[in-house]
Amino acid sequence: MQHNMESDRVMAATSSTGSDSQSMDQKTTAQWARVRARLRAEFGETAYRSWLKPLTLESLTGNTAQMTVPTRFMKNWIETQYKDRLLALWSNENAQVTNISISHSGSRQAKKTVVVEPSILSDKIDEERTPSAMELSAPLDDRFTFDRFVVGKPNELAFAAARRIGEGESVPFNPLFLFGGVGLGKTHLMHSIAWNIRQTSPEKKVLYLSAEKFMYQFIRALRYKDTMAFKEQFRSVDVLMIDDVQFIAGKDSTQEEFFHTFNALVDQNRQVIISADKSPAELDGIEERMKSRLGWGLVAEIHSTTYELRLGILQSKAEQLSIHIPAKVLEFLAHKITSNIRELEGALNRLVAYSSLVGRDVSLETAQEVLHDLLRANDRRITIEEIQKRVAEHYSIKLSEMHSARRSRAIARPRQVAMYLAKQLTSRSLPEIGRKFGGRDHTTVMHAVRKIDELRQSDSSFSEDVDLLRRMLEG
Ligand code: ADP
Ligand code: MG
Predict the structure, then answer these.
(1) What is the model's pTM?
(2) Does the Cβ of 155 fall within 6 Å of ligand 1?
(3) How far is CA 357 from the centre of its chain?
(4) 341, 349, 350: which to mutate for ligand 1, most atoms within 8 A of CB?
(5) What tens digit of pLDDT does each residue of 392-429 get?
């Protein structure tokens, strides 16, 4: 329901682009398209569709990008959640843009600059009746099924647990809590569960949505004093899945409501599945009682990928695309693109698209050429923790001394070396580095960097020592 409405709205909004007196030039349109693409990549499909896609660029005058959204609510939300990033991306595309102005189309109509059906652009979405649980469920991606999920050591537990729930059996754990870094398959597994239950037990009500959407619905219910209906919808489902629950961190009333919903369902033996980027205990900004409750069932981590899993995934994707790609190329990608599975898939798609466009075979050379930027970004990233560990080992001090307040030279010097290397080898800022060294001030880090620089100039054996450490870290 809501979905159709949304696309109507977007269409209507799009048709207004360029109707402004200063019609938009091609360059601006292209810049805006790139900004949108970046937003989509950074915030993910769900957030993009709910909040960012409805944005319409009205004009670019002087240093201000003027945009509109259909409702006041959306305007406020975008301003608090996304505006900073929006501006940063704009400035990146076009250095002249230093200001962003967002208005809702109600206010825009007042200026009589737009030729759009006002009924479509009114606050209709907010006035819509409360959707039913089924309508609430976010659309499922039809590629996210169990048979397309490649299982390996890093995800075998999560997969097995999801599989059991998907088969519709009652399972001895509730909730299932899936956690792991971005792009490792959490959403894929949740959608797979939903697809499978739809098949095996079509009478069951399965509700899948992101924590962000949960919050949006909840806020809307509050606003329209419709919380009873809201509670009803959620408490009548057989299987509830909430994706990316870290999103409600620090959002107290949403958390409270979620907690009640969660308890009500678990108490009635309905299955709850939660995903997050961290384990329950490590979730920041989530209440203690909630963390402990989230960890009551089965907590399954999806670990970072291994070479074998990456290669398996590439082979399976290549097969799905019915394209022959030399084993050497797949091995190269599996070796080089280690960040996450989403990027790995993206790399393969790009490579395939490129070679079909220019009519060249996929080879190692094309891969290196086409994926140049990705490959560089995936170059081993050195962490501050690794630096601290290596440096502590090298100077035979305890790792904990990196964070301690002790100032004796035998401890302080290695600590300074570690700070120096952190500055040289990572892209962390001075305050960030300071925080990782027992909460020190950025001036302390600055001092350390200067000190080590000086010492390197006056003491060549010390300098060689530091270089050696550096080479070891760069491996
Ligand atoms: P997350 O929700 O953890 O950020 P997603 O579930 O969105 O990650 O996965 C990112 C992409 O990687 C999706 O296209 C998904 O199909 C793919 N993917 C993740 N894990 C696997 C896997 N084990 N096998 C096949 N594809 C996978
Ligand atoms: Mg996800």
Answers:
(1) 0.61
(2) yes
(3) 30
(4) 341
(5) 999 999 999 999 999 999 999 999 999 999 998 887 88
